[in-house]
Amino acid sequence: MLMGIYGQDWASYQSSTPNTGGLSFAFVKVTEGLSYINPRWVTQRDHAKANGLVWGGYHYPHMGNSAQAEADYFIGQVNWRPGDVVILDWEGYDSANSGVPKSTQRAYKDAWLRYVKSRLPHNPVGMYANLDYWWNVDQDGFYADFLWIATAGRAAGNPGIRAGWMFHQYGESNGLDLDYCRLASTSELRDWALSFQYSPPEETDMPQWIIGRVDPGAQPTVVLLPHGSAWAGYNRKLHLGMDQITDTPATGSVRVALHDGNTWHGVQAVQLAAEGGPVDVDITSGDVKLSLQTDAAGVSFAVETW
N or C, which end of the chain has less CB nearby within 10 Å? Predict the structure, then answer.
């Protein structure tokens, strides 16, 4: 028994507000070539989302054009949100594509998918193709994140291919294309679509301490600091201390300098004493490295992140 869910794909010749009863997802035509925009796509998208459906938008290509130019045209129409599904409708039986060599059509497909994935790395990007294109035009099996396969005369969920398809267009009824997804529920499909979002490392996954010794001499010890957007919300501090045990308490000075990727700043001489506790130096969020130089022995450092 099939445990999947059902959806439809809509274009301008469907209603702006199709019946969504029993559906979990809807894929809507947004653009074609470099000049056509489905006049109903916004209303159809909003209608799908308002009724709890997972939404995807697709582009129908004119494969004699630049794949990148068409991708930019398509991407630019939509304020893409987390969980939106991005699709290339890869077929070419119409007058705009039938004269384009199959080698060019293959190159267009690969270029479009790779470029769109680079532009929308945190959305699922995939391809629609029928059996003819999948078996007879495609040669490399590349479909980016998922394959939406179309067949005629095969039951939902049984497209008859070995590739790891996600969606199956299995039929048509009353002018509506009928689709099936192999996942078990709308929530599972939504979780899958949202799983492509960037997730910064959890605090427990990030190193909390960088520790080491400052070698005495003219050559400074340079420490590379964790930085970038994943670290923007964290605090960092440098701790300096001495661990000599001598009859006469040891003291020393450490020259500290911070670098923000462009210039050195915060240059200061930090005074240390072995019998005293650690001395702290603030590190700003934009700093990428620090330099430590001392003539004293027994100086150690720790960079704390929290």
Answer: N
